Amino acid sequence: MAPRGAYHHGDLAAAAVDEALRLIDADASASFSLRALAERLGVAHRALYNHFADREALLAGVAARGFDMLADALVIAPDAPSFLAAYVRFALARPGLYDVMMARRHTAINGDPGLRAAVDRVIGAAVKGLATPGADDETQRREVMRIWMIAHGGIGLQRARMLRLRSDAEFAEEILRIAGF
Amino acid sequence: MAPRGAYHHGDLAAAAVDEALRLIDADASASFSLRALAERLGVAHRALYNHFADREALLAGVAARGFDMLADALVIAPDAPSFLAAYVRFALARPGLYDVMMARRHTAINGDPGLRAAVDRVIGAAVKGLATPGADDETQRREVMRIWMIAHGGIGLQRARMLRLRSDAEFAEEILRIAGF
DNA sequence: TTAGCGATGTATCCACTGGATACATCAGCG
DNA sequence: CGCTGATGTATCCAGTGGATACATCGCTAA
């Protein structure tokens, strides 16, 4: 909307999402305060409310950007095993962001068109990246769900250290075997 | 420790965990404040700090109780499909509690002996409930991980409405097929 | 050219939160 | 029977998300 030297700040909405991503990555959770975020942007904390209805709306913006980045990481996977590996790598590299993405509720996803579109990009990448030629649609759909469940569940359990594995590297190897690759 | 008419309140620690469970179930998240909890117990909010170091310690207590209840729900499952079904039923019936259980970090689980023991009860139930006779230990271990990943991941994706299924009932049916049962 | 309007940002306030410090109460043991 | 340590209370604090009122200034229409 405001490409260059626009008004007071430029494009505060985008800058806020950028900075929020940095803060989230920094301590692997979305525990930052709006005030800390605003201070880093050199702006009164209330200025953010001109672009986001509330904290939740800002996080929805962060989630949308996260799904976009995830889709970028997934579309280049040449086959199912590398697809799964790329997904796991993304989630373990940016755990705070992954949490924000996955914590968004149904209403948020369907309410925010940008967020919905980004999620759909990821789903599209999954359908293509996990396609098994010759299988009917129902089977393909189920295979996407199966891999996604194993990936998402494995990530959560590994992060909670419930699997008793020695390292993330060992986990990355193990999950491929478990998925049947 | 304080069985009957003990001191001022009786057993505030246990009562606090009970009441926290109610609040968590009520709005499907652990968003309650210590003050609201204390008020319901008829006690100054600071009294809780005589039993829990901080909010996180209280939630660790809640998580321990959650794992105990989950283990109770799992040990009676006669075979692998009913085990999976029971796990999913528990998590979808008490989403707030399930989140609290799964959000506990490595340090919390290993630091609190009660929590650790409760987690081990669940793992023990899984190993028994999912046992496939005649398979070697490594295979059994991997099968436990596979089902747990599918269950935990499926639950998370279903709750975020990422799977595009019509209802929790449909999900419960679908996940059994996906697990290969 | 300029008036003023709407978008953006600021100043200040509020109720509420988790947590800290200091003190009061009282069960049970010597 | 008096002391002590466990338990609970009173009060304070800085920090939080959010609200209301106002200031700034680019853009557009006359």
From TrEMBL, chains A, B:
<dbReference type="Pfam" id="PF00440">
    <property type="entry name" value="TetR_N"/>
</dbReference>
<protein>
    <submittedName>
        <fullName>AcrR family transcriptional regulator</fullName>
    </submittedName>
</protein>
<dbReference type="GO" id="GO:0003677">
    <property type="term" value="F:DNA binding"/>
</dbReference>
<feature type="domain" description="HTH tetR-type">
    <location>
        <begin position="10"/>
        <end position="70"/>
    </location>
</feature>
<keyword id="KW-0804">Transcription</keyword>
<dbReference type="InterPro" id="IPR036271">
    <property type="entry name" value="Tet_transcr_reg_TetR-rel_C_sf"/>
</dbReference>
<dbReference type="Pfam" id="PF13305">
    <property type="entry name" value="TetR_C_33"/>
</dbReference>
<feature type="DNA-binding region" description="H-T-H motif">
    <location>
        <begin position="33"/>
        <end position="52"/>
    </location>
</feature>
<dbReference type="InterPro" id="IPR009057">
    <property type="entry name" value="Homeodomain-like_sf"/>
</dbReference>
<dbReference type="InterPro" id="IPR025996">
    <property type="entry name" value="MT1864/Rv1816-like_C"/>
</dbReference>
<dbReference type="InterPro" id="IPR001647">
    <property type="entry name" value="HTH_TetR"/>
</dbReference>
<keyword id="KW-0238">DNA-binding</keyword>
<keyword id="KW-0805">Transcription regulation</keyword>
